Amino acid sequence: MWQEFGIALCLMLVLEGVLPFLYPRRWRDALAQLVQLSDRQLRLMGLASMLLGTTLLYLLH
């Protein structure tokens, strides 16, 4: 189980690094917009992301 967790963590880091590598200016602008969101909006985005990830994991597994 720990090996799969490590693999998932590494893949997450690779995927999160793609946008800053390819489009640094757009990525910086997107982060600037995220800073302006309220805590509620950020929490809703986080919840939506977790639900989408869980659903996709369930469908793929």
TrEMBL record:
Domain of life: Bacteria
Source taxonomy: Bacteria, Pseudomonadati, Pseudomonadota, Gammaproteobacteria, Pseudomonadales
Keywords from the UniProt entry: Membrane, Transmembrane, Transmembrane helix
Protein name: DUF2065 family protein
Keyword Membrane: yes
Organism from which the protein derives: Aquipseudomonas campi
Record keyword Membrane present: yes
Record field: transmembrane: 6-23, 44-60
